[in-house]
Amino acid sequence: RFFFMAQYRAFIAGDAEAKLPKHLTFLGGLGAGLFSVLTTSPFDVVKTRMQSVEAKNYKGTFDCFRQILTHEGPLAFFNGALARSARVVPGQGIIFVSVDVVYDLISGFTAKKK
Hints:
Elements: H1 2-13, H2 22-51, H3 61-72, H4 81-113
């Protein structure tokens, strides 16, 4: 998520540490959340299968990956990704904006003390 956000800031403002307006930070957070879901979904599917009663059908984690790929195809690794996206994507937008707001408050408070 932070890697995505740094690349997003570099793309938008030319600097990975640049301060962006809140609406652009929110959009970047949404993108970071989507990136996170898409990159971790295959692992989440395997983890869920290995924790379920279906786990007895697999010899281990790599066997689970193999069986899903060969029997269900690569799109099976994204089962449930839409539901996860509905939770994670907006949450990341809110988190990144919240971090900026808190940072601004702390910076303003410490600047007044000096």
